[in-house]
Design brief:
Layout lengths: L1 H18 L2 H11 L10 H36 L4 H4 L1 H37 L3 H33 L8 H20 L8
Helix pairs in contact: 1-3, 2-6, 2-7, 3-5, 5-6, 6-7
Length: 196
C-alpha cells in the first residue's frame, strides 16, 4: 500500500512539473501577439492579460503541490527531511522552487497591478503614447522574468533526473548551456513592438 501511495504522489509530482511549463507557453503566446498588428489596449490585450493573470495564480497551486509532493517523497524514502539540506540536488530543486515562488510573487503583486493600472489609464485618456510605452516596458520586464522562470524550471528538472544517478559535471554544464540558449531563443523570437 505504501508503494502505491508513493507512486501516486510521484505521478502527481511529475504532472505538476509538466504544468509548471507555463512560462514557455507564456513566452510563445506573447511572441505571437505582434502578428495581429493591433494597438496596445485593444480587446486582444484584455483577453491576453486575462489569460496571463489567471495562469500566474494557478502557478501557485502547482508550486505548492510540487513542494508538498516533493517533501513527501523525500520523507517516504529517508524517513526524515534531512536530505533536502544534505543532498545537493534536492537542495537545488528546493531553492529553485522558492526562487520561482519569489519571481511569481513579484509579477502577481507588483508588476501585474501596475500593468492593469496603466491599462485603466489608457482607456480614460487620449494621450495614449506615453502610457503605451510604460505598458510595453513593464511587459518586457514581465517577459524577462518569464524567461528566467523557464530557465529555473528546466534547471530544476535537470536536478530532478539526477536524484538517484548523478550526471558528470561536464554533462551538467553542457545541458545548462543548452537550456540557456533555448530560453534565449524563445525570449528573442519575434520581439514584439506593442506587446511583450
Amino acid at each position: 500500500m505504501a508503494d502505491t501511495v508513493e507512486s501516486i504522489v510521484l505521478l502527481l509530482h511529475i504532472i505538476t512539473a509538466v504544468f509548471m511549463a507555463w512560462p514557455l507557453y507564456a513566452l510563445i503566446t506573447v511572441n505571437e501577439r505582434p502578428k495581429v498588428n493591433a494597438p496596445v489596449g485593444d480587446k486582444l490585450d484584455d483577453f491576453m492579460e486575462g489569460i496571463i493573470k489567471k495562469n500566474a495564480r494557478r502557478c501557485y497551486i502547482f508550486q505548492i503541490t510540487a513542494l508538498a509532493t516533493g517533501l513527501y517523497l523525500v520523507w517516504a524514502h529517508a524517513g526524515t527531511l534531512t536530505p533536502v539540506i544534505s543532498n545537493f540536488r534536492l537542495l537545488g530543486k528546493t531553492v529553485g522552487l522558492f526562487v520561482l515562488m519569489g519571481l511569481l510573487s513579484y509579477v502577481v503583486f507588483y508588476l501585474q497591478p501596475r500593468i492593469d493600472g496603466l491599462f485603466g489609464q489608457l482607456k480614460k485618456t487620449k494621450l495614449k503614447e506615453n502610457i503605451s510605452q510604460k505598458i510595453i516596458a513593464l511587459r518586457l520586464q514581465r517577459k524577462m522574468l518569464a524567461a528566467t522562470c523557464l530557465f529555473v524550471v528546466l534547471t530544476v528538472i535537470l536536478l530532478a533526473i539526477q536524484i538517484r544517478q548523478p550526471l558528470a559535471l561536464t554533462v551538467n554544464v553542457a545541458i545548462i548551456i543548452l537550456i540557456a540558449l533555448f530560453v534565449r531563443r524563445v525570449f528573442k523570437a519575434n520581439i514584439p513592438y506593442g506587446w511583450i
